[in-house]
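Before anything else, study the sequence and fold tokens given here and see whether the fold suits the sequence. Record follows:
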Amino acid sequence: MSTTLDRPLTRAAWMQYALMRIRELVDKPRSEMTDAELAVYTLANNALTGGDPVVPLADGENASRMCRVCGERWGLKSPAAHHLGCPVTA
């Protein structure tokens, strides 16, 4: 799918584009998804659930935070380390 950007690339424009693509993926029947689409389905679905996109993960001494949009994890005291291109970082 090719999409033409008809306005300046701002944070709002990027978020709208990213959410549009996420909705398209989540709405697609699983039987028609490629392996790559199935691999990110859970993350895409979680991105649409609302709330804070960064959630704490309790794992004993290895507690961390995770971005529900890109799936990256980092320590509680570490700076955020989103995946390159994650719209949450914009």
The first helix runs from residue 11 to 27.
